[in-house]
Amino acid sequence: MSATRREFLRQAAVAGGGALVAGAIPLRGMARPAVTMRPIAISSANGLRAVTKAMEMIASGSDALDAVIAGVNIVEDDPNDVTVGYGGLPNEEGVVELDSAVMHGPTHQAGAVASLRNIKNPSKVARVVMDRSDHVLIVGEGALRFARAHGFKEEDLLTEKAREAWLYWKEHLSNTDDWLPPHGPDDTDIGSLLPEPLRNEFGAFFRHTGTIHCSALDQKGNLSCVTTTSGLAFKIPGRVGDSPIIGAGLFCDNAVGSAGSTGRGEANLVNCSCRMVVEHLRTGKSPEEACLEAVKQIVEHNRLKRLQTPDGRPRFEVELYAINTRGEYGGARIYSGGKFSVHDGTTARHEPLAYLYKKEKN
Ligand code: ASP
Protein backbone atom coordinates (compact mmCIF):
# COMPACT_ATOMS: atom_id res chain seq x y z
CA MET A 1 0.00 0.00 0.00
CA SER A 2 1.38 3.42 -0.87
CA ALA A 3 2.19 6.03 1.77
CA THR A 4 -0.46 8.30 0.25
CA ARG A 5 -3.09 5.63 0.57
CA ARG A 6 -2.05 4.90 4.12
CA GLU A 7 -2.34 8.58 4.93
CA PHE A 8 -5.77 8.68 3.31
CA LEU A 9 -6.93 5.71 5.37
CA ARG A 10 -5.58 7.33 8.54
CA GLN A 11 -7.36 10.59 7.79
CA ALA A 12 -10.54 8.81 6.84
CA ALA A 13 -10.44 6.89 10.13
CA VAL A 14 -9.97 10.08 12.14
CA ALA A 15 -12.64 11.99 10.25
CA GLY A 16 -15.13 9.12 10.34
CA GLY A 17 -14.81 8.76 14.12
CA GLY A 18 -17.43 11.34 15.03
CA ALA A 19 -19.97 10.67 12.30
CA LEU A 20 -23.52 10.08 13.51
CA VAL A 21 -25.19 9.48 10.20
CA ALA A 22 -23.79 7.69 7.17
CA GLY A 23 -21.67 10.12 5.19
CA ALA A 24 -22.89 13.12 7.17
CA ILE A 25 -19.47 14.40 8.22
CA PRO A 26 -17.08 15.10 5.37
CA LEU A 27 -13.41 14.24 5.65
CA ARG A 28 -11.44 17.07 7.19
CA GLY A 29 -9.82 19.15 4.47
CA MET A 30 -10.93 16.87 1.66
CA ALA A 31 -14.16 15.95 -0.05
CA ARG A 32 -15.33 12.37 0.35
CA PRO A 33 -14.16 10.78 -2.90
CA ALA A 34 -17.58 9.39 -3.73
CA VAL A 35 -17.08 9.08 -7.46
CA THR A 36 -13.96 6.96 -7.16
CA MET A 37 -15.81 4.33 -5.13
CA ARG A 38 -17.01 1.23 -6.89
CA PRO A 39 -20.12 -0.01 -5.11
CA ILE A 40 -20.02 -3.71 -4.47
CA ALA A 41 -22.05 -6.29 -2.60
CA ILE A 42 -20.81 -9.75 -1.70
CA SER A 43 -22.46 -12.60 0.07
CA SER A 44 -22.22 -16.29 0.81
CA ALA A 45 -23.19 -18.64 -2.02
CA ASN A 46 -26.86 -18.60 -0.95
CA GLY A 47 -26.97 -14.82 -1.39
CA LEU A 48 -27.45 -14.16 -5.10
CA ARG A 49 -30.86 -12.61 -4.42
CA ALA A 50 -29.41 -10.76 -1.44
CA VAL A 51 -26.63 -9.08 -3.43
CA THR A 52 -29.09 -8.26 -6.20
CA LYS A 53 -31.42 -6.51 -3.77
CA ALA A 54 -28.53 -4.81 -1.96
CA MET A 55 -27.07 -3.48 -5.21
CA GLU A 56 -30.48 -2.29 -6.42
CA MET A 57 -30.80 -0.22 -3.25
CA ILE A 58 -27.22 1.03 -3.34
CA ALA A 59 -27.71 2.11 -6.96
CA SER A 60 -30.63 4.24 -5.85
CA GLY A 61 -28.56 5.86 -3.11
CA SER A 62 -29.21 3.70 -0.04
CA ASP A 63 -26.79 3.36 2.82
CA ALA A 64 -24.91 0.04 2.68
CA LEU A 65 -26.43 -1.16 5.96
CA ASP A 66 -30.03 -0.69 4.79
CA ALA A 67 -29.08 -2.46 1.58
CA VAL A 68 -27.43 -5.54 3.09
CA ILE A 69 -30.21 -6.02 5.65
CA ALA A 70 -32.90 -5.81 2.95
CA GLY A 71 -30.84 -8.31 0.94
CA VAL A 72 -30.60 -10.95 3.65
CA ASN A 73 -34.25 -10.44 4.65
CA ILE A 74 -35.18 -12.20 1.40
CA VAL A 75 -33.31 -15.31 2.52
CA GLU A 76 -34.57 -15.07 6.12
CA ASP A 77 -38.12 -15.08 4.75
CA ASP A 78 -37.50 -18.05 2.44
CA PRO A 79 -38.65 -21.37 3.95
CA ASN A 80 -36.53 -23.28 1.43
CA ASP A 81 -33.28 -22.04 2.91
CA VAL A 82 -33.03 -24.27 5.97
CA THR A 83 -30.04 -22.40 7.40
CA VAL A 84 -31.49 -18.93 7.99
CA GLY A 85 -34.61 -17.33 9.47
CA TYR A 86 -38.02 -18.86 8.81
CA GLY A 87 -37.62 -22.57 8.01
CA GLY A 88 -34.17 -22.75 9.63
CA LEU A 89 -33.19 -26.08 11.19
CA PRO A 90 -34.05 -26.13 14.89
CA ASN A 91 -32.09 -26.91 18.05
CA GLU A 92 -32.01 -30.40 19.59
CA GLU A 93 -35.45 -29.81 21.12
CA GLY A 94 -37.00 -28.89 17.78
CA VAL A 95 -37.11 -25.14 18.45
CA VAL A 96 -35.69 -22.67 15.92
CA GLU A 97 -33.21 -20.25 17.52
CA LEU A 98 -31.74 -17.49 15.38
CA ASP A 99 -28.55 -15.42 15.63
CA SER A 100 -27.72 -12.24 13.76
CA ALA A 101 -25.54 -9.15 13.88
CA VAL A 102 -25.21 -5.97 11.85
CA MET A 103 -22.30 -3.55 11.71
CA HIS A 104 -22.38 -0.03 10.32
CA GLY A 105 -19.07 1.28 9.02
CA PRO A 106 -19.61 5.07 9.18
CA THR A 107 -20.64 5.10 12.84
CA HIS A 108 -18.65 1.98 13.82
CA GLN A 109 -21.72 0.77 15.68
CA ALA A 110 -23.19 -2.70 15.82
CA GLY A 111 -26.24 -4.56 17.05
CA ALA A 112 -26.86 -8.24 17.54
CA VAL A 113 -29.27 -10.84 18.86
CA ALA A 114 -28.64 -14.46 19.74
CA SER A 115 -30.84 -17.47 20.51
CA LEU A 116 -33.85 -15.45 19.39
CA ARG A 117 -37.02 -17.51 19.02
CA ASN A 118 -40.23 -16.79 17.05
CA ILE A 119 -39.01 -13.77 15.07
CA LYS A 120 -38.12 -14.55 11.50
CA ASN A 121 -35.93 -11.52 10.77
CA PRO A 122 -33.26 -11.43 13.49
CA SER A 123 -31.20 -9.06 11.35
CA LYS A 124 -33.96 -6.44 11.65
CA VAL A 125 -34.01 -6.89 15.42
CA ALA A 126 -30.20 -6.60 15.48
CA ARG A 127 -30.57 -3.30 13.64
CA VAL A 128 -33.01 -2.06 16.25
CA VAL A 129 -30.61 -3.12 19.03
CA MET A 130 -28.04 -0.89 17.35
CA ASP A 131 -30.39 2.03 16.74
CA ARG A 132 -32.63 1.95 19.81
CA SER A 133 -30.57 0.64 22.71
CA ASP A 134 -27.28 1.34 24.40
CA HIS A 135 -26.25 -2.30 23.92
CA VAL A 136 -24.63 -4.36 21.21
CA LEU A 137 -25.88 -7.89 21.96
CA ILE A 138 -29.14 -9.07 23.50
CA VAL A 139 -29.86 -12.80 23.84
CA GLY A 140 -32.66 -15.30 24.40
CA GLU A 141 -35.79 -14.27 26.26
CA GLY A 142 -34.47 -10.71 26.63
CA ALA A 143 -34.02 -10.44 22.87
CA LEU A 144 -37.54 -11.72 22.27
CA ARG A 145 -39.01 -9.22 24.74
CA PHE A 146 -37.00 -6.44 23.14
CA ALA A 147 -38.29 -7.47 19.71
CA ARG A 148 -41.88 -7.62 21.00
CA ALA A 149 -41.51 -4.16 22.51
CA HIS A 150 -40.52 -2.90 19.09
CA GLY A 151 -43.55 -4.43 17.42
CA PHE A 152 -42.01 -7.51 15.82
CA LYS A 153 -44.59 -10.19 15.15
CA GLU A 154 -44.08 -13.62 16.70
CA GLU A 155 -44.63 -16.70 14.61
CA ASP A 156 -43.79 -20.39 14.55
CA LEU A 157 -40.57 -20.63 12.53
CA LEU A 158 -40.50 -24.42 12.28
CA THR A 159 -41.60 -25.54 8.82
CA GLU A 160 -42.65 -29.11 8.01
CA LYS A 161 -39.42 -29.62 6.10
CA ALA A 162 -37.29 -28.51 9.05
CA ARG A 163 -39.39 -30.54 11.51
CA GLU A 164 -38.94 -33.69 9.39
CA ALA A 165 -35.20 -33.11 9.20
CA TRP A 166 -35.07 -32.67 12.99
CA LEU A 167 -37.14 -35.82 13.51
CA TYR A 168 -34.85 -37.72 11.15
CA TRP A 169 -31.84 -36.57 13.15
CA LYS A 170 -33.49 -37.50 16.46
CA GLU A 171 -34.55 -40.91 15.25
CA HIS A 172 -31.09 -41.77 13.93
CA LEU A 173 -29.06 -40.24 16.67
CA SER A 174 -28.57 -43.41 18.59
CA ASN A 175 -29.50 -47.09 18.51
CA THR A 176 -30.00 -47.12 22.22
CA ASP A 177 -32.57 -44.40 22.81
CA ASP A 178 -36.35 -44.67 22.41
CA TRP A 179 -36.76 -42.71 19.19
CA LEU A 180 -37.15 -44.91 16.08
CA PRO A 181 -37.91 -44.17 12.45
CA PRO A 182 -41.00 -45.93 11.00
CA HIS A 183 -40.34 -49.68 10.72
CA GLY A 184 -42.06 -53.07 10.62
CA PRO A 185 -41.71 -56.08 12.93
CA ASP A 186 -39.18 -57.83 10.66
CA ASP A 187 -37.01 -54.86 9.78
CA THR A 188 -33.47 -55.09 11.06
CA ASP A 189 -31.75 -52.38 9.01
CA ILE A 190 -33.80 -49.42 10.15
CA GLY A 191 -31.51 -46.94 8.37
CA SER A 192 -32.44 -48.39 4.98
CA LEU A 193 -36.08 -47.42 5.58
CA LEU A 194 -35.34 -43.74 5.54
CA PRO A 195 -37.32 -41.73 3.03
CA GLU A 196 -34.96 -41.14 0.11
CA PRO A 197 -35.26 -37.33 -0.02
CA LEU A 198 -34.39 -36.91 3.64
CA ARG A 199 -31.54 -39.35 3.41
CA ASN A 200 -30.04 -37.49 0.50
CA GLU A 201 -30.42 -34.09 1.93
CA PHE A 202 -29.55 -34.65 5.54
CA GLY A 203 -28.25 -38.20 5.95
CA ALA A 204 -24.66 -37.38 5.17
CA PHE A 205 -24.60 -34.25 7.30
CA PHE A 206 -26.16 -34.80 10.67
CA ARG A 207 -24.85 -31.41 11.74
CA HIS A 208 -25.99 -29.32 8.83
CA THR A 209 -24.71 -25.74 8.91
CA GLY A 210 -25.42 -22.66 6.83
CA THR A 211 -25.80 -18.95 7.20
CA ILE A 212 -25.94 -15.83 5.08
CA HIS A 213 -23.42 -13.04 5.29
CA CYS A 214 -23.61 -9.87 3.16
CA SER A 215 -21.10 -7.00 3.05
CA ALA A 216 -21.41 -3.93 0.85
CA LEU A 217 -19.71 -0.72 -0.15
CA ASP A 218 -22.17 2.01 -1.10
CA GLN A 219 -21.94 5.01 -3.40
CA LYS A 220 -20.64 7.23 -0.59
CA GLY A 221 -17.80 4.80 0.02
CA ASN A 222 -19.31 3.53 3.27
CA LEU A 223 -19.12 -0.10 4.32
CA SER A 224 -21.57 -2.20 6.31
CA CYS A 225 -22.31 -5.86 6.88
CA VAL A 226 -24.76 -8.36 8.31
CA THR A 227 -24.68 -12.04 9.18
CA THR A 228 -27.82 -14.03 9.99
CA THR A 229 -28.35 -17.72 10.70
CA SER A 230 -30.28 -20.47 12.42
CA GLY A 231 -26.86 -21.69 13.48
CA LEU A 232 -25.69 -25.23 13.87
CA ALA A 233 -28.57 -27.61 13.25
CA PHE A 234 -29.78 -29.52 16.31
CA LYS A 235 -27.51 -27.54 18.61
CA ILE A 236 -27.79 -27.50 22.38
CA PRO A 237 -30.48 -24.92 23.18
CA GLY A 238 -28.81 -21.60 23.85
CA ARG A 239 -25.71 -22.42 21.79
CA VAL A 240 -24.48 -19.24 20.14
CA GLY A 241 -22.18 -19.39 17.14
CA ASP A 242 -20.02 -16.77 15.51
CA SER A 243 -22.73 -15.04 13.47
CA PRO A 244 -23.92 -12.57 16.14
CA ILE A 245 -20.43 -11.98 17.51
CA ILE A 246 -18.71 -8.86 16.22
CA GLY A 247 -15.19 -9.77 15.12
CA ALA A 248 -15.98 -13.46 14.75
CA GLY A 249 -18.84 -13.77 12.22
CA LEU A 250 -18.52 -10.26 10.77
CA PHE A 251 -16.57 -7.06 11.16
CA CYS A 252 -16.12 -3.84 9.28
CA ASP A 253 -13.90 -0.81 9.58
CA ASN A 254 -15.04 2.01 7.35
CA ALA A 255 -11.47 3.04 6.58
CA VAL A 256 -10.32 -0.45 5.66
CA GLY A 257 -12.86 -3.11 4.68
CA SER A 258 -15.63 -5.45 5.67
CA ALA A 259 -15.59 -9.20 6.27
CA GLY A 260 -17.97 -11.99 7.11
CA SER A 261 -18.05 -15.70 7.56
CA THR A 262 -20.05 -18.90 7.32
CA GLY A 263 -19.13 -22.39 8.43
CA ARG A 264 -18.01 -23.74 11.80
CA GLY A 265 -18.77 -20.91 14.18
CA GLU A 266 -16.70 -22.34 17.01
CA ALA A 267 -13.57 -21.98 14.84
CA ASN A 268 -14.33 -18.32 14.20
CA LEU A 269 -15.09 -17.66 17.85
CA VAL A 270 -11.64 -18.81 18.96
CA ASN A 271 -9.90 -16.95 16.13
CA CYS A 272 -11.88 -13.68 15.90
CA SER A 273 -11.63 -14.49 12.21
CA CYS A 274 -13.42 -11.53 10.65
CA ARG A 275 -11.51 -9.03 12.73
CA MET A 276 -8.35 -10.84 11.59
CA VAL A 277 -9.40 -10.52 7.94
CA VAL A 278 -9.89 -6.77 8.34
CA GLU A 279 -6.52 -6.44 10.06
CA HIS A 280 -4.90 -8.29 7.16
CA LEU A 281 -6.65 -5.88 4.79
CA ARG A 282 -5.25 -3.02 6.82
CA THR A 283 -1.72 -4.22 6.05
CA GLY A 284 -2.49 -3.93 2.33
CA LYS A 285 -3.38 -7.52 1.53
CA SER A 286 -6.05 -8.07 -1.12
CA PRO A 287 -9.41 -9.37 0.15
CA GLU A 288 -8.62 -12.86 -1.12
CA GLU A 289 -5.14 -12.85 0.48
CA ALA A 290 -6.58 -11.49 3.73
CA CYS A 291 -9.19 -14.26 3.85
CA LEU A 292 -6.61 -16.94 3.03
CA GLU A 293 -4.32 -15.67 5.75
CA ALA A 294 -7.15 -15.91 8.29
CA VAL A 295 -8.06 -19.39 7.04
CA LYS A 296 -4.42 -20.44 7.58
CA GLN A 297 -4.56 -19.19 11.14
CA ILE A 298 -7.76 -21.14 11.77
CA VAL A 299 -6.09 -24.29 10.49
CA GLU A 300 -2.92 -23.69 12.55
CA HIS A 301 -5.00 -23.23 15.68
CA ASN A 302 -7.04 -26.38 15.13
CA ARG A 303 -5.24 -28.50 17.71
CA LEU A 304 -7.96 -30.95 18.77
CA LYS A 305 -7.52 -34.42 17.29
CA ARG A 306 -11.28 -34.98 17.13
CA LEU A 307 -11.47 -32.05 14.72
CA GLN A 308 -8.65 -33.35 12.51
CA THR A 309 -8.55 -35.86 9.69
CA PRO A 310 -5.87 -38.55 9.93
CA ASP A 311 -3.47 -36.24 8.04
CA GLY A 312 -4.09 -33.41 10.50
CA ARG A 313 -6.40 -31.27 8.37
CA PRO A 314 -9.63 -29.79 9.74
CA ARG A 315 -12.73 -31.94 9.73
CA PHE A 316 -14.83 -28.84 9.16
CA GLU A 317 -15.21 -25.93 6.79
CA VAL A 318 -15.05 -22.18 7.27
CA GLU A 319 -15.69 -19.62 4.52
CA LEU A 320 -14.51 -16.02 4.73
CA TYR A 321 -15.61 -13.14 2.48
CA ALA A 322 -14.19 -9.63 2.28
CA ILE A 323 -14.31 -6.31 0.47
CA ASN A 324 -12.08 -3.27 0.83
CA THR A 325 -12.72 0.43 0.45
CA ARG A 326 -11.76 0.32 -3.23
CA GLY A 327 -14.51 -2.17 -3.96
CA GLU A 328 -12.07 -5.06 -4.40
CA TYR A 329 -13.48 -8.32 -3.13
CA GLY A 330 -12.63 -11.95 -2.57
CA GLY A 331 -13.04 -14.93 -0.31
CA ALA A 332 -11.42 -18.13 0.82
CA ARG A 333 -12.12 -21.33 2.66
CA ILE A 334 -10.28 -24.40 3.86
CA TYR A 335 -11.17 -26.85 1.07
CA SER A 336 -11.67 -26.32 -2.67
CA GLY A 337 -15.08 -26.23 -4.29
CA GLY A 338 -16.58 -23.21 -2.56
CA LYS A 339 -18.10 -20.14 -4.13
CA PHE A 340 -19.54 -16.83 -3.07
CA SER A 341 -22.02 -14.34 -4.52
CA VAL A 342 -21.06 -10.94 -5.82
CA HIS A 343 -22.80 -8.01 -7.49
CA ASP A 344 -20.55 -5.31 -8.91
CA GLY A 345 -23.30 -3.15 -10.36
CA THR A 346 -23.55 -5.13 -13.58
CA THR A 347 -24.62 -8.69 -12.70
CA ALA A 348 -25.09 -10.97 -9.73
CA ARG A 349 -22.92 -14.05 -10.07
CA HIS A 350 -21.02 -16.73 -8.24
CA GLU A 351 -17.25 -16.61 -8.10
CA PRO A 352 -14.90 -19.29 -6.70
CA LEU A 353 -13.45 -19.05 -3.22
CA ALA A 354 -9.70 -19.46 -2.87
CA TYR A 355 -8.71 -22.42 -0.72
CA LEU A 356 -5.88 -24.02 1.21
CA TYR A 357 -6.43 -27.69 0.34
CA LYS A 358 -7.74 -29.32 -2.79
CA LYS A 359 -10.61 -31.65 -2.00
CA GLU A 360 -10.46 -35.15 -3.53
CA LYS A 361 -13.97 -34.80 -4.91
CA ASN A 362 -15.72 -31.48 -5.40
N1 ASP B 1 -21.45 -20.03 11.36
C1 ASP B 1 -22.73 -20.56 11.71
C2 ASP B 1 -22.72 -20.95 13.15
O1 ASP B 1 -21.75 -21.52 13.61
C3 ASP B 1 -23.16 -21.74 10.92
C4 ASP B 1 -22.81 -21.73 9.47
O2 ASP B 1 -22.44 -20.74 8.90
O3 ASP B 1 -22.91 -22.79 8.83
O4 ASP B 1 -23.72 -20.74 13.81
Mind explaining what this structure looks like?
This protein is α+β, with helices and mostly antiparallel strands. The chain is 30% helix and 21% strand. It has a single domain (35-159, 204-357), classed as Glutamine Phosphoribosylpyrophosphate, subunit 1, domain 1 (4-Layer Sandwich). The chain is built from 10 helices and 13 strands. Helix 2 runs antiparallel to helix 3, helix 3 packs antiparallel against helix 4 and helix 9 (273-282) crosses helix 10. The structure holds aspartic acid. Aspartic acid is lined by residues 209-211, 229, 231-232, 241-243, 262-263, 265. Aspartic acid binds at residues 209-211, 229, 231-232, 241-243, 262-263, 265.
Question: How many strands in all?
Answer: 13
What would you call the shape? Answer: globular
Bound molecules: aspartic acid
Q: Could you list the spans in which at least 5 consecutive residues all have pLDDT below 50?
A: 1-35, 194-206
Alpha carbon gyration radius: 21 Å
Main-sheet strand order equals 4-3-2-6-5-1-11-12
Helix fraction, binned, reads: 25-40%
Name the CATH superfamily classification: (Glycosyl)asparaginase
- Alpha carbon gap, first and last residue: 36 Å
Question: What is the domain total for the residues?
Answer: 1
Q: Kindly provide the name of the CATH class.
A: Alpha Beta
The ordered H/E elements are HEHHEEHEHHHEEEEHHHEEEEE
At CATH level 3, the topology is: Glutamine Phosphoribosylpyrophosphate, subunit 1, domain 1
Number of DSSP helical runs: 10
Share of residues in strands: 15-25%
Looking at the overall shape, the CATH architecture is 4-Layer Sandwich
- Find the structural class using helix and strand composition: alpha+beta
Major sheet: 8 strands, mixed
Kindly report the average pLDDT value: 86
